[in-house]
Amino acid sequence: MPKTPLITRTPLRFASAVLLTLAALNIPAAHADEVTPVAVTVDARAALAAVPETGIGANHAIWDSRLGADETADLLKDAGVKLLRYPGGSYSDIYHWADHTAPGGYVAPGTDFDTFMSGARRTGAQAMVTANYGTGTAEEAAAWVRSANVTKGYGVKYWEIGNENYGNGHYGSAWEADDHADKSPAEYARTVVAYADAMKAVDPTIKVGAVLTTPANWPDGLTADGDDGTWNKVVLSLAGPKIDFVILHWYPGALDKAAHVPDMIDLTRRQIAAYAGSGAERIGIAMTEFNTGSSSNGTNTQPGALAAADAYATLLANGVFTVDWWNVHNGIGAVTQVAGHTDYGDFGLLSSAACASDGSVCEPPANTPFAPYYALRMMRAFARPGDRFVQAATDQAKVSAHAVRRADGSLAVLLINTSSDTSYPVTIGYSGFVPASGAPTVLTHTNGATDIIRSTSGSATGRTLPPLSMTTIVVTPASAQTGLPGTPGQPAVSNVTDTTAAISWPAASAGQEIAKYEVYRNNGAVAEQLGETSGTSFTARNLTAGTRYTVNVIARDSGGGVSWASPPVTFTTGTPATSSCAVRLTDQSDWGNGYVGAVEITNNGAPINGWTLHFRWPRTWQSLGSGWSAVWTESGSEVKAVNEPGNGSLATGASTTIGFVGNYSGPNVLPAVFTLNGTVCATR
Fold first, then answer.
1. pLDDT band at residue 524, thresholds of 50, 70 and 90?
2. Where does the signal peptide begin and end (predicted)?
3. Could you report how far apart the first and last alpha carbons of the chain are, in Å?
């Protein structure tokens, strides 16, 4: 079977991969009595995003001859796939739907759009179609919308404009077809506007998406010659008013990168808010290609499956409306042994029955599920559409936890043990929820298993996790969840300063008379109460400057009944509006894992003779490379810059500029709080 060019199209996709060491996969076995129990904390008061209908997705490709097979559709349905993307990655920018051709590529029989839609309907999935930007036209895309939604009544809601179009050579590396003479982000944005206008003139109900770069993934942060900013800034500034969602792709290359997700999504939202214009809050985020991208550490064996489950849960908890696995079928790659099983280097969910070029190794029979398939099945069982994620955390790096609350009052807890040889006992503590005393429903998938085992066993507060396993525990409440206050509506925030924020929300429907509302901050897996009020607004005080806050509201009635937590609202505090000093940090040039930062310091107070500037790196993956125009030192996350002899004196109103090279290996959240001689400065 032909291989997709997405496997080899650019080494930059994998250049930043940080592979797990063999030592991490083969640490000495520990005896059960030597293993410290893992503390898991679940807080039902710390609500995150709701589980979307389209959350679990996958990619189909027109070079896959099994795209339209009933067996394929039925397996995807069993995995809970609710969105299918077509016609397949980079092929989208050479594909012409009307005659089902892809000049320069291979098109398998039985992969036309009608066949795809038939399979999607059998799966029970919505379709996402990628219109041809690279070699197509707005008129061609509009005709596709007309044929799909007007003529045939398919009702395709989601339409992307192109695929990874930043890979057209504008930044140096080229894998994406692009016949436009101008390959800049401005040209892409102008063309997106033309596509959106033409397509929505045919069907105004469709949602149109534009391609962005993913924070901390090439070429994010780069500004090419002649551009007014980065790809994302230019695209959002010009096309923002015309689009309904943005498109990210993520191939992290390592199996432990789920911790990057909250910042990745937050930075994307900040860019949307900053550049996309009025009403930007309507713009959703879709992760239309995701794969662990780590063939040497388990693309299709259990370590990859565990990383997949962790990433799916984290992305959805942070409000991404679909996460689409690359790919349903993909093909054999580098063959290795991982965690006691053969890893075929295949990015597919299902086997393609392909063989190595020398015939020495062949995959299992066609459509045999690989381990990541069971990650999707576990996600289906764990997080159902309409459930709401709540905060969960552990005190052991090898064990991760996620949780959702359900409409019937129950909680589901997903526990992932990434250790290859240690069974971890866990103790689970709950806040804002009291579990029933009976045995919960338990679903478990272990290394090499070809099914998920369901049982009713143990307790809601503890069990032992096998090595390389994912376990879902469904816990019912100790008492009936009836007659309680309704959930407060979506909070909004305004008038955010360095220490305060005004929060308001729609009133909850009362079970009994509502006595008060309680406002909580998500702080890890522990909700911290900020205050309470009898009304539907509250001013949070004593906040910390330059800090991201996620807040929920809970209603409590006069009988003591407590509602579920409201949807979250997230905001970031600033710095003092006025101060005796001001700082402006500018990212002057960026190369994907480092940047040149210029720090302009202004003295607004009495004259200074000698100064020391302090700031803290927001994330553990950031560090100081070098610095100039000051004496720079770093200790852990703390950075200090002391004046040189020639710039130590600052008269009132005077400024000086110093610089540094900052290194990063994850989303680059810039420092926001600076102190000069101990005073917190206003950040401009």
1. confident
2. 1-32
3. 56
